[in-house]
Recover the amino acids of this structure.
């Protein structure tokens, strides 16, 4: 079975635990789309990515209300999260616009790691 490139290996239809809380699949896919493809996220993730708690809480669906802490913790602690890809609206725009090809370089690195892991399996 061929898996698509993702920051969340093992993602299934029920989502994946980043910690104690299961983060919804649609949120994981939106994070993949932001970090790997440069797609602008919706209001909920934009609120989280720009450190706008009010925006995040106000626009969270029921499933994501329970996952806010885990998503923020993942952004702050997981070494795969690229530097300067989130934290302020400036950095989010920088990432989305692929300024200095920072996102492109990140994706190439992730793709190489994915290919190497696949070949070793």
């Amino acid at each position: 079975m061929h898996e698509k490139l993702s920051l969340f290996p093992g993602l299934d239809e029920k989502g994946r635990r980043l910690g104690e809380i299961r983060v919804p699949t649609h949120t994981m896919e939106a994070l993949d789309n932001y970090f790997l493809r440069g797609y602008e996220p919706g209001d909920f993730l934009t609120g989280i990515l720009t450190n706008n708690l009010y925006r995040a809480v106000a626009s969270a669906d029921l499933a994501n209300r329970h996952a806010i802490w885990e998503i923020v913790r993942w952004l702050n602690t997981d070494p795969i999260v690229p530097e300067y890809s989130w934290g302020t609206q400036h950095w989010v725009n920088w990432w989305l616009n692929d300024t200095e090809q920072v996102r492109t370089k990140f994706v190439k690195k992730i793709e190489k790691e994915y290919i190497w892991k696949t070949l070793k399996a």
